[in-house]
Structure prediction request, 264 residues.
Amino acid sequence: MDLGYQGKVAGITGAASSKGIGFAIARQMLQEGASVFLCDLKQEAVDAAVKELSAYGTVRGYAADVSGGQAVAAMFDRAMADFGKIDVFVSNAGIYPQCALMDMTAAQWDTVMGVNLRSVFLCAQNAYRCMKGRGGVLINAASYAAVLASAGSGAYAASKSAVYSLTKTLAAELAPYNIRVNGFIPGVIATGMTQGVIEAKEDSLVSQIALRRLGEPDDVARAVAFLASDAAGYITGTFVEISGGKLCVQNPDYAYQNRGNSNG
Ligand SMILES: NC(=O)c1ccc[n+]([C@@H]2O[C@H](COP(=O)([O-])OP(=O)(O)OC[C@H]3O[C@@H](n4cnc5c(N)ncnc54)[C@H](O)[C@@H]3O)[C@@H](O)[C@H]2O)c1
Prediction:
């Protein structure tokens, strides 16, 4: 299927880590024919990602902390100066601190909310000013934690639940401007963010997944590329879960333990 990315301009936040979901989305959209701009915290990492991704097409990178209003506005201004328009914007940057709520300081809480939630609001406002009149697509990273929270990462789960809600409101408020807004819910994807958790309990994580494997960043990137494309033109205000069927039932193990025993 031609997803129609030729001539389009797509922006992705938190896309400098070559093992991360944002980088995979940037590469996928470049391969589909889009021009891409990306941001991340450190200029050095941004430059390295741009160098690697240049093999796939036209790409620019800007260092920006997505939780800051001025930095986000400057990133959009630079993208408009470089490309003249923005068709797709993916709010992907996020942090996943492991900390029980009773041990967390208010400053740590604010940091999680700033990077995971405030950024989505700031990017949506800036994307709107660039897209209104032409239309466009916003995609926001939520998490399985928005569906089912876990002890030890309560602030993260709260921020992602709020992204879930925010995405739905944005979809309604931006629909008159022909701007679609959707999100994605990764399950457990093998990236820098999840490396520690996977090392600590990979077997237990995989046992919760119907397809019995961890996800790869490209699994997410392909789904996001579809969601942001014209092929998904009637989809707004919703989320695609890319989790291999994580806890799609309480006991995904059952099907494996009873394989071959069914009389059906
Ligand atoms: N990996 C998973 O299993 C998983 C599961 C659920 C949700 N997610 C979500 O998917 C998104 C991508 O996750 P990932 O696994 O690729 O993570 P990652 O840690 O590999 O990449 C996140 C990127 O965001 C950047 N970043 C962090 N703070 C930033 C800031 N203030 N400004 C700009 N950039 C910043 C980091 O430098 C990094 O490059 C995140 O929103 C995450 O919460 C991931």
